[in-house]
User: Fold this.
Amino acid sequence: MLKYAMAVSGLIMLTYLLVHAYGNLKFFQGQEKFDSYLHETLPHMFYPYLPEDGLLWIMRVALTVALVVHAYAAATLWRRNRVAGGYVGATRYHSKQNRTGNQRSYASFTMRWGGVILLLFIIGHVAQMMPNWIHPGGASDSKYDRVVNGFDLWWVVLLYTIGLVAVGFHLAHGFWSALTTLGQNRSKYRTTSRITAISIGLATLLVATFLSVPFAIFFFGAGS
Ligand code: HEM
Assistant:
């Protein structure tokens, strides 16, 4: 049950990320299009059937619930696994087989730390993008300007790159894991399985799409 909860909540957040990454590409259409998408189109979706910002708030509540369920399930499963594996109070990896055995990868080792980095990244990012709370490079009412001001600074680009690499590793393993939980893994070996290739491909595509905006601004002067 908890594994299903993790898989489904993870897929909900992944769906959001795919829409978000696609939306970010509007940046390349210029300030007017980008700002009207964020300041006009998104807040007025299904208006007047939904109030202003209605769909955004439904999405925010859904994402918050998904995040809490995901983190709770992860922590509970991890604790259970530790107890069941007899790791508590002992060295975690008892044998060579365990260390190198099937279904272990760099990503699966780093899910927990990657998850923590991600959480910090999301908190910082939302504080920067949403209400003008923190505004590296300068505050503005235009979200386009805020994005450009921030990504003109090397340390903002660096922090985002670290956050996005964490997104990539987390997704590459997490998507594989979710598909396996939901019964889509029909392969005997992890490394040659089709869903491993699909998961790594999807994670790479998503990270590259997200990175395109900060890199275009910092390295190629886009937006200024
Ligand atoms: C360089 C990459 C990114 C850029 C340029 C970017 C840009 C933005 C912008 C402009 C907003 C404000 C949207 C609005 O006003 O409706 C926003 C919101 C948000 N972003 Fe990102 N984003 C990036 C990566 C990410 C990543 C990787 C995540 C998650 C892991 C993320 C999660 C969010 C969330 C949760 C919100 C709040 C949405 C809301 O409540 O309306 N973003 N982002």
